[in-house]
Amino acid sequence: SNKNMTVELDNNTGVAVIQMKKPPVNSLSLEFLTEFAINMEKLEMDRECRGVVLTSSNPKIFSAGLDINEMYGKTPEHSGEFWRAVQEMWLKLYGSNMVTIAAINGSSPAGGCLMALACDYRIMADNPKYAIGLNETKLGIVAPFWFKDSMINVIGRRATEHSLQLGLMYSASNALKIGLVDQLVAQDKIMTHALSVMSEWLAIPDHARQITKSMMRKPTLDRLLTNRESDIQNFVNFISKDSIQKSLQLYLEMLKQRKS
Ligand code: CO8
After folding, report:
1. Whole-number pLDDT of residue 258
2. Class for domain 5-202, per CATH?
3. CB contact at 8 A, 71 and 82
4. Is the ipTM of this complex over 0.90?
5. Does residue 248's CB lie within 6 angstroms of at least one atom of ligand 1?
6. Is 65 in the pocket of ligand 1 (CB under 6 A)?
7. What residue's CA is closest to ligand 1, atom 26?
8. Which among 11, 29, 82, 240 is most buried, taking Cβ atoms within 10 Å?
9. If DSSP codes are grouped into helix, strand and coil, which group holds residue 47?
10. How far apart are CA 233 and CA 253, in angstroms?
11. What DSSP letter does each residue of 176-237 carry, written as one string?
12. Is the peptide bond before 24 cis (omega within 30 degrees of 0)?
């Protein structure tokens, strides 16, 4: 049963739409990530399903990224379990045999950007208020190697280094300029456009496209698969540090104050 997202498969087109709907900002909690991985697995095994469009029911936010509450004041056991779920989300999405398109209808920092980066194609709503990027350093934390790899594979090394060191968030038009997204479309056209791009991708024979996708992505996937346990240990050690907990606390306070 889905709580944090809706999944609708159109049996005529073979396209599923996953619409994230976890109030207020689609933060990626342990529960959300677990639900997402189960849904991806089901669609992957469903012979009727050939493509997935990932989008959000929130009109202004695609996803706020990892749920900061899952990283603040938690036991090492919880942190380890949480991080395994983050890995699983990415492995399922980056390694999917289906065509995956992100319809980024709002802001998409950090983990939200990672989800978009893991897809085959990114369409963003043409709104100067929406921003996307891996902003981890601004929170005093470090994007792990597979976040970095995902970005390099989309925008290249130099742009990634610049982007990651400064924790840059890009407006929709700047994201298009550096290739972080593939296209900008008016907000109200984003779903119809995503579905029409999807039909172009689905016109390619699945088998040839899947082998090609796997050829491109396998080294990046294997890198996490072979270092999975050490990556978890690394996260748990890092997040348990007093200085990191302090940074996250300040960041959470800043988010809450910004409101009033
Ligand atoms: N996690 C938990 N709660 C969040 C998050 C989040 N990521 N983002 C926002 N919230 C909460 C806010 O605190 C606020 O709570 P409350 O209602 O209790 O005050 C509520 O959601 C609504 O937020 P806003 O009022 O800020 O909503 P806006 O519409 O004004 O803005 C944004 C939405 C743009 C999404 C904004 O909230 C924002 O910038 N959020 C922070 C996003 C962010 O920096 N995420 C980074 C998470 S870290 C990550 O994903 C990768 C970590 C990699 C691991 C590193 C190894 C150690």
Report:
1. 87
2. alpha beta
3. yes
4. yes
5. no
6. yes
7. 255
8. 82
9. coil
10. 27
11. HHHTSSSEEE-GGGHHHHHHHHHHHHHTS-HHHHHHHHHHHHHHHHHHHHHTHHHHHHHHHH
12. yes
Q: What is the pLDDT of residues 101-160, one digit of tens each?
A: 999 999 999 999 999 999 999 999 999 999 999 999 999 899 999 999 999 999 999 999
Residues with a catalytic annotation lie at 66, 111, 135-136
Pair 195, 138: CB distance under 8 Å:
no
Q: Mean pLDDT of residues grouped by 10 in the chain (260 residues)?
A: 95 98 98 98 98 98 97 97 98 98 98 99 98 95 97 98 98 98 98 98 98 98 98 98 94 86
Q: Which atom of ligand 1 lies nearest, measured to the CA of 67? A: 1
For residue 260, the model assigns a pLDDT of: 59
Ligand 1: centre distance to CA 67 (Å): 7
Helix (H) or strand (E) holding 152: helix 145-155
Longest dimension (CA), the chain: 53
| pLDDT for residue 4 | 98
4 alpha-carbon distance from chain centroid = 15
**Residue type for 224, please?**
L
Which pLDDT score is estimated for 137? 95
Distance CA 46, CA 226 (A): 28
Q: What is the DSSP letter of 71?
A: T
Give the H or E element holding residue 131.
strand 131-133
Provide CB contacts within 8 A for 113, sequence distance 6+.
65, 132, 133, 134, 180
- The token pair at 41 is 């697995």
Tokens of 150: 């995902």
- 3-state secondary structure at position 29: coil
